Structures are given as structure tokens and as C-alpha cells.
Amino acid sequence: MNISLDIQNLHKLYLSKELKPRELCEALQNQANAIDNPNIWIHRLSPEELDPYLVRLESADPASLPLYGIPFAIKDNIDLAGVPTTAACAAYAYTPEKSSPVVEKLIQAGAIPIGKTNLDQFATGLVGVRSPYGVPRNPLAPDRVPGGSSSGSAVALSESLVSFSLGTDTAGSGRVPAAFNKLWGVKPSKGRLSTSGVVPACRTLDCVSIFALNAADSQAVLKVAEGFDSSDAYSLPTADQSLPVSKKIGVPKPEQLMFFGDAGYEAAWSLALLELESKGWEIETIDFEPFLQAARLLYEGPWVSERTAVLQDFLASNADDFFPATRTIIGGGLNNTACDAFSASYKLAALRRESESVWQGLAAIVTPTAGGFPTLADLAADPIGPNSQLGYYTNFMNLLDLCAVATPAGETESGLPFGITWIAPRDTDKALIEIADKGPRALEADNDTLSILLFGAHMQGLPLNAQILELGGKFVAQVDTAAQYKMIYLPEPAPHRPGIIRVGEGGSSIAAEEWRLPKASLGALLASIQQPLGLGQIELSDGRKVHGFLCEAAAAQSAQDISATGGWRGFLAQA
């Protein structure tokens, strides 16, 4: 089946009934069997294991689920109910009864788990070769490393076996594989995605990451996967912050850049800067030293002991089950003391404060994702050195509580993939993806648009959606209101529609779509809206307040309360 697996394309095919999820999964199974890349998966779901997910979708409306029929891969340190979690160590394996919250959210949104992917054992590595399950072959450079630790997740997407995949990113594992496989790699703000049901690497630093084909897919998956989880002690409420309206991006001083003898990557970086300038960015050099010093703390300081703390007992009883390089790293954490940990935490706090001044006037910082692209032979000769080099531009990220997105940025002269990473303060995740995709105009355009909530026939795939598209509307995400509203049925005037009313108590959370609409088009939209609806502010489940159409309370006196359906699509499905 030769079709693009990006989410928007699959969504169109499902809505037009040109494709069904079962057909897609059968084609992907055949493709996975046909390609010569046997080490991608630790456990690929059989047709029997996939069947319950497909049966559920067969009775659902494609328009009712934001990720309806979208196939995805899961790094095998993240739980999928009923499937062993190995972290690439068979002796460590366990079979969870329930999926991790992130995986469960994706499945509930309609996504289909295709399998559990290979990784650097216990997510310890940036190369993707430290696994007893073999090395996934990099489809774009077979003699080079696939990148790790989320190697299988990146390669599964690069081989067109899924539409997106989940990784984890403690030190760069969601960004380095993205660069080496020409993918988008989202390293969210710490705590934005739950890490419950994830085998810890460094519990205070771990993030579940997302590999995607483009910016729109990155945003769509992030929106579904994020959210506060009270069972995760490190989870934080979702917050969205804007970026400064600036055309300036910071890059390290030339003397602070490292390419480790890789002339191809050094030249590709220079070309990437020219490309950024052509898109309207102004390049400003910054002092990158606080970030580099923080990066060195991750493996040269006591944070490696966090990895040891998780696996200390298993290391004592099962030392021979560790991959050799992994055993060396994990065992080294036994040498640090509590005094070392406190001293390093003081140093990190000072570096964090020092780094704060660097951000002034910048929309983001941009670096190479990796300074070089090691060969498999390089790793065979030196299992540790090249891996350490790959962390040069990545290791500081979670220590300094930043968010990042890795994007493809062309190729070297010899045709090897090259990528850059966009970096910004925490909670600017969505704005960062936007500017990485659209350039500085995304920041400027934000001043000329307004978020609008749609609850009825103006939503995607419904009769009046064409009006929103004609007005220049851009879909943002599926959202839910706070549990302070009720939805009533308004059959007149035609077309029939819902009315949203704020209530003091006994309210429900109502499903909606968030769109960005040019402010210049707002008058035309308002002119098409009839009583008893009017524009007001509506509170969302994440605490944001967004403009939307509220209903006059008087209309509810004789109207049917349809709040229990959860939203207009739910009501239509029951009608």
C-alpha cells in the first residue's frame, strides 16, 4: 500500500471510506515482514492481538476520534497492557495489566499500537546499538548508527511502518534518533506527559517523547498524550506559554561548536544557518557555556546514580544479563556519594540562573542535534566515546528544564541526514513546534489570529466546516471544557446545533475543537451566528480560557439536555 502515513492524509482516507484501519494494519504487517530490518521490534502485535483495537474502531465514527486508525509504535520501556515490557533485557521483563497513561490516552483517541520497539538497554545510550535484541538498521545510512536509545521507534517510523512513535528522552534519546532518521522529535517539558508505566532511567529527568513525520502530526499527538497524572509524582499541570515576538534565534559561538572531526556535519550546519536566515530569522551568537557545563553534569556527575538507584538490586542479582556497556555505566553510579549529589545540585542551580540571561530577546536557541554521525565500526572500536560525543548538544536539556524539538535540516554533501534542535523554556512546547515549522511569521501571525472553540456543525467533517475553512480557519486541537457546562439541543433555527451553557454546579466537560481564526474574519463569523448564541469566554479542562459561542440561559428552560453524550459528535452518534 503506497500511501502517506501522515495523520491528515489517513484521516481524509478514513472519512471518505477509501481506507479502513484493518486494511491499513494488514498492509503494514505485510510491509514489516517484507523489509530486511529484523531488529526494529522486540514484540510486534499479531493479528489476534491487534483485533480488539480494530473491532472497537469498526463501530466508531472516524470523525469522532482525533487519532482514529492511526498506527503507532511504543518504545519497549513503556507499558502496553498484556504485552511484556523488557527495556531490552529479557530477564527484567514483566507483563503489565494496564497501559501507561500516555499509551492509554492515545488508544482512547483511536490510535492503534503496532508493537514494542527495540532500544538501548534500560534507555542507556544515544547510539542505538546497546541491545541484546540486535541493532535496528538505519534505513537512510545502513553503515551508521540508528541513534538511541529510542532506536526502534525512530526506525519503525523511518521505514513507514507507523505514523508516529513514542520514545523516551532523558539525555537526548528522542532527538538524536530523529536527526539520524529525518524525523521530527519532540522532547516535551518535564512532567507534561506522564511517566507512569515507564521504566525509569533518571526519574527526575525522564520524558516520554514523540517521533513524527511533520509539525502537524507532532502537535496532534502531543495534544492527546499530554495531561496531568496524579499517580506520577513528577507530573505537572499542562500549561501553554507563548514565545517572545522576535526574529532573533541564538546559536552557540563558533568556538563553542563541536563536530568531532565530521566535516560533513560542520558544512551542513553552515548551510542550515543560511536556510534559517532565508526564512526570516536573525542569527545571534550566544554564550553556550552554561549549557555545556550543565550537560557535563549528567554523566560526569552523580545523576548517573539515578539510573543505578532503579536497577541496583537487579544489577546485584543479574549482572550477566546487562549489555556490557550498559553494565559499566550503571555500575559506575555506585561510586557517587550524597555529598557529591548535593554539590552537583548546587552547581546546577547556579548554571540554571546563569543561563537565564541568555534568553533575553530570543525566540529560541538552535543547535545541531548531533555534532557527528558515528558509523557502526566506530562503536565497535569504542563503545563509550562516540556515545558521549552525541550528548554534547542534548544532555543539558532536562537538567535545565527546557523543551525542545528536533527537525530535519537537509543533508551532508555525501547525502547523510542532518538535523537541528530548537530549544526554549518549559511550557512553550506548542509554540516552539510552530516556529520550527513556519519561521518567525508564526509569531507575528499569532497577533492577527484568535482561538475559537467550535462545538457543532462547524467542526471538522461536519456540514458547516467549509465556512470556517473559507474564513481562513486553522485547526489546532481537540479539547474539552472544564466540568462547568451543560450542552443543550437547539433544533431551531436550522441547522440543528448545540448550545453551551455555564452552570454553577452539576456541570459536565464538553468536547470541542479549537481553531485559530484571522481576527479580520471574526465579523463574518459572528454575522452567521444566530440567537440564542453569542461570543464569550469558555474555560477548558487545562485551565485556559478561550473564546467560544455560549448560549443564553433562557434557551435551556425547554431544551433537551444532551450533556451526557459528551459532545456534539456523541449526540449525533446516538441520534
TrEMBL record:
- Record SUPFAM superfamilies: Amidase signature (AS) enzymes (SSF75304)
**Entry keyword set:** Hydrolase
| EC number(s) from the headed UniProt entry | 3.5.1.54
Q: Name one GO molecular function term.
A: allophanate hydrolase activity
Its domain of life? Bacteria
Q: Key word Hydrolase present in the record?
A: yes
Domain Allophanate hydrolase C-terminal as annotated: residue spans:
451-572
- Which segments constitute the Amidase domain? 61-432
Name by which UniProt lists this protein: Allophanate hydrolase
Could you tell me which species this protein originates from? Thalassobacterium maritimum
**Source organism phylogeny:** Bacteria, Pseudomonadati, Verrucomicrobiota, Opitutia, Puniceicoccales
